[in-house]
Each structure stands twice: as structure tokens, then as C-alpha cells.
């Protein structure tokens, strides 16, 4: 986890992987608890993840529906809403995600899907322009 304070705002960047075990409820609880902590601390966050939960099944799997509703209730959005994995033997799935609570058209400039294997490479562009006074030695790293 990387955290910085730019212009009075705290930014957290995380990467999360969840093994594709059949029981995802413990992960879902831990993840929503993490979001609640960041929400209460008024942190801006970006979370890239391969959590092996197929969001394309959110209308037919109650565990995924509950998970999506939980993260949405905390102001978290998923930037990827198209299939990210394809296979000749399975239906397309959306297993790879980028989550954020940054809802600002000037910050998020786009999300992309690139085909490099049976999983698509996903990324989002975030523009951070801290107001740094001139003639200062203060540096910011992301």
C-alpha cells in the first residue's frame, strides 16, 4: 500500500489478489472493512485487483450482488465493466478490477483493456496535479 498526502488529501494505491477458492465471503468482508476504514479516514484510493469474482454474474449470484452493493454503498466504483477474461471453453468473465472513490472527470482520463493472453491487461489513467509552491524542495512520489 502506498499513501501520500497531496494538497491536504490522502491517496492510497493498492493491489489485491484473491485466490480463486470457492468461499469468497471472508474476502468480501475483509475488503468492505478496508473500504470502510478508508472511507472514514477520508482517503482517496485506487485499488487494482484480480479477485476472481465474476462481476458479470452480479444479477444471478447473490454473494456477488451483495458485494457489489456493499462497495457501491461506500462510494466505491469499479472502472472496468467489460469482460477481462476469455476462454474457448468458458463464458467471458470480469475477474480483474480497478476500484476507486475518486469520481472526478479531470482525474480519471480513461480506462483501457488490452488483449495479451486469456486475461486482458487493464489500466486507468489518473492525473494528479498537486499545487506545489514554487521554489520548494518538497517532492511527491506515487
Overview of this protein structure:
The structure is a single chain. Residues 113-117 have low confidence and may be disordered. The radius of gyration is 17 Å and the shape is globular. The protein has 2 helices and 7 strands. Strand 2 (9-17), helix 1 and strand 3 form a beta-alpha-beta unit. It is of the alpha+beta class. The strands form 2 sheets. Strands 1-2-3-5-4 form a 5-stranded mixed β-sheet, with helices on one face. It has a two-stranded antiparallel sheet with strand order 6-7. It has one domain: Deoxyribonuclease I, Chain A (4-Layer Sandwich), CATH 3.60.10.10. The chain has helices at 25-40, 62-73; strands spanning 2-6, 9-17, 43-50, 77-78, 96-100, 108-115, 120-126. 18% of the residues are buried. Helices cover 20% and strands 31% of the residues.
Core attributes:
alpha+beta; 142 residues; Deoxyribonuclease I, Chain A; 20% helix; two-stranded antiparallel sheet
- How far is the first residue's CA from the last residue's CA? 11 Å
Which CATH-level-2 architecture?
4-Layer Sandwich
Low-confidence stretches: 113-117
- What order do the SSEs take from the amino end to the carboxyl end, as H and E? EEHEHEEEE
Average per-residue pLDDT, rounded, comes to 76
Helical content class: 10-25%
SS class: alpha+beta
Classify the oligomer. single chain
Strand numbers in spatial order across the main sheet: 1-2-3-5-4
CATH class: Alpha Beta
Total strand count, please? Answer: 7
Rg calc:
17 Å
